[in-house]
Design goal:
110 residues, alpha/beta, Transcription Regulator spoIIAA, 5 strands, 15% strand, globular
Length: 110
């Protein structure tokens, strides 16, 4: 992405009680960003998760929902600057490969 491309940012805190309101805001941002990405002939929408400090499993729901919305909008979601704690939480819940396919272990060759 070039230097003038915008990127959505996750807030510092995502808790279950905040999730519905955050999802409402995130949907609007995702749709607007997806339209900009498509108009620039892009294929990837980026969300920066680097600010996340306090979160529970609801952040995974938000990110998975965001990925589904992006797919429906014709772009791929890329979550960058992912805190290690968030990656571990995604592994525990079995969704890490859905959010970060590049982190999936290589499949054994038969």
């Amino acid at each position: 992405m070039s230097g003038n491309d915008s990127m959505l940012r996750m807030p510092a805190s995502v808790r279950m009680a905040d999730a519905p309101g955050l999802w409402a805001q995130l949907q609007l941002g995702l749709r607007a960003e997806a339209a900009q990405v498509r108009s620039a002939a892009g294929a990837e929408l980026r969300i920066n998760a680097g600010d996340l400090q306090q979160f529970d499993s609801s952040v995974l729901t938000l990110l998975l929902s965001a990925a589904r919305l992006c797919t429906a909008e014709g772009v791929k979601l890329h979550v960058c600057q992912v805190p290690a704690k968030l990656q571990e939480l995604a592994r525990v819940y079995g969704v890490a490969e859905l959010l970060w396919p590049e982190l999936a272990p290589p499949s054994p060759q038969t």
